[in-house]
């Protein structure tokens, strides 16, 4: 329970200090603002420096500043099972292609 509260507090702090809106990418079909709203749960793992998930040998990577293509390919691979991390696969299954484009548009602009 305490760990859950710690993660929730870290998430709240991270979101409170996140940029108000990322710069809109040149691809007008993707919405960085919608991507920002969709990534609130991502911060729980990817927003904590040095965080490792339930698999102690798996380092959770930072996503901010990654290329749009990398982010789209990674989320799509989790969604279709090509990448096999159970938590990421479950997260990605709930995203539409538009959601993935929006998430990539936002995260690629995060410093």
Structure description:
This protein has 111 residues and is an all-alpha fold. It has a single domain, classed as Cytochrome Bc1 Complex, Chain D, domain 2. Helices cover 53% and strands 0% of the residues. The N terminus is likely disordered.
Broad CATH class: Mainly Alpha
The tally of helices reads 6
Structural class category: mainly alpha
Whole-number total of structural domains:
1
Q: State the helicity in percent bands.
A: 40-55%
Shape: globular
The biggest beta sheet reads:
none
Distance between the termini: 31 Å
CA radius of gyration: 14 Å
| CATH homologous superfamily descriptor | Cytochrome c-like domain
Number of beta-strand segments: 0
CATH topology: Cytochrome Bc1 Complex, Chain D, domain 2
The overall pLDDT, averaged over residues, is 76
| Order of helix and strand elements from N to C terminus | HHHHHH
In CATH, the architecture is Orthogonal Bundle
Low confidence ranges: 1-27
Percent strand equals under 5%
Summarize it.
This protein is an all-alpha fold.
List keywords for this structure.
111 residues; mainly alpha; Cytochrome Bc1 Complex, Chain D, domain 2; globular
């Amino acid at each position: 329970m305490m760990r859950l509260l710690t993660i929730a507090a870290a998430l709240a702090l991270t979101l409170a200090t996140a940029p108000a809106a990322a710069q809109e990418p040149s691809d007008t079909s993707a919405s960085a603002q919608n991507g920002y709203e969709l990534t609130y749960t991502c911060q729980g793992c990817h927003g904590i420096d040095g965080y490792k998930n339930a698999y102690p040998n798996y380092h959770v990577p930072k996503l901010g500043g990654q290329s749009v293509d990398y982010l789209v390919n990674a989320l799509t691979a989790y969604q279709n099972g090509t990448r096999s991390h159970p938590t990421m696969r479950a997260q990605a299954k709930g995203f539409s292609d538009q959601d993935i484009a929006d998430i990539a548009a936002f995260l690629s602009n995060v410093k």
